[in-house]
Amino acid sequence: MTNPALNPTPVQRLLSLDVLRGITIAFMIMVNNNGGSGAWGFMKHAEWNGLTATDLVFPTFVFVVGASIVYAFQARLKRGATRAQLAVHTVQRAAILFLLGVVVNGFPFFPLDHLRFYGVLQRIAICYLVVGLFYLWDQRVWTKVAALVFCLVGYWVLLRWVPVPGAGMPGRDIPFMDKGLNLVSWLDRLLMPHHLYLEWGGPDPHNLRDPEGLLSDLPAFGTALLGVLTGLWLRGQRAAKTTALGLAAGAVTCLVLGYWWSLSFPLNKNLWTSSFVLVAAGWSLTVLTLSYWAMDVWSWGRGQSKGLVYPWLVLGSNAITAYMFSEIVPGLLDRINFRSGGKPTSLPAWLADHVFAHMPTPGWAAFAFSFFTLAYCFVPVWILYRKKIFVKV
Known about the structure:
The chain has 13 helices and 2 strands; from the N terminus they run H-H-H-H-H-H-H-H-H-H-H-E-E-H-H. The chain is mainly alpha-helical.
C-alpha cells in the first residue's frame, strides 16, 4: 500500500512555474539537438568563458526544481506525510533520476569501461537530494541564504586560492580557470579518469574534464537554493502584484551581483562559476516574473486564453519524460537504416539531405531540425497529458 500523503498530485500549483518549466524543457530539447555547426550562436554553448542563451537552460531547470521542492513538500506535509517519509521518498526519487541519467549516457551499448556517470539528470538528482533534505530539515529563510553564501563564496575560494596539485596556484603558476588545469577537472581526473565527457579531447591528459563534475555540484546547490528561496517567496501571503515586484527585485539583484562578480570570476557554465549561478538565476527570475505577471496577475492562460500556454503546460507536466525521449529516440532513429538513391541512409540523414538542406541559410536549416526534434518529442507527452497521465520518478 502506498501512502496517499506521498502521492505526487500537489494541492496548489502555480501556473507561471509550470509554464517556465515547459519553456525550459522545450529549449533544452532544441539546443541538445541544435542541428550541428551551422546553428545560430545563441543555440550553442559558450566554448569556455562567456554566456549564451543555451547556457541558461540547464541552470533554469535546476532553479525550477528548487522552487518546486517548496510546493511539492508543503503539499505532502499538509496531507499528513511525515518528514521521515518524505526524506525516504526524496532519496528514492534522486536515485531513480541518477540511474536514468546513466541510462541516457550509456544507451544503447553501455560501454562499462568508459561509461559516463556524471550528467544532466545526475546533477539534478544530486541537487534535489541535498537541497530537498536540507529544506525538510530546516525551512527557515535565513539558513537558505547562509547556505547559498557558503556555496558560492566557498567555491570561489576553492578555485581561486587552493593550489591545483602538480600545477600550482591559480593566477600565479597557472592561468586562473584554465580549461584543464583547474581544481574541478583535477578532481574528476583523479576519481574517474576514463569516465568523463571530454575524455577524448586530445592526447594531453589535461584535456580530460566534465561539464557536470563533482566539485561543481557545490555552486549548483546554490542554483537550487535560489529556487527554494523563490518558492518560499511565491508561497507567501501577499498581494500578487507585490509578489511580482519582489521577483523583479530579485532578478535585478542577482543580475547586478552576478555581472559584477564576473569581472573577477568569469561566467562559465562548464565550471558553473558563482557569478554564473547569480546571472543565470537572474535571467530565470526575469522570465518567471514576466510569466507570473501574465499568468497570475493578468490571468492569462486560464479559460479561453489557456491555448496561449498549452504547449508549455504539456511539456512541463512530463518534463523528465520529454527529456528522456529526446535523448534516446534520436539515437534510435540514426540506427534505423534504409536505402535511398542507391546508398544507405537514416531518417535524420534523409531529412537533412532532402528537406533541411533546402532551407535558405545553415542557421535556418539547423533551427528547422531542432524544431522537428521538439515536435516529435511533443507528441508522446501530449498523449500523456490528454489522458491525464503524469509520469513521476
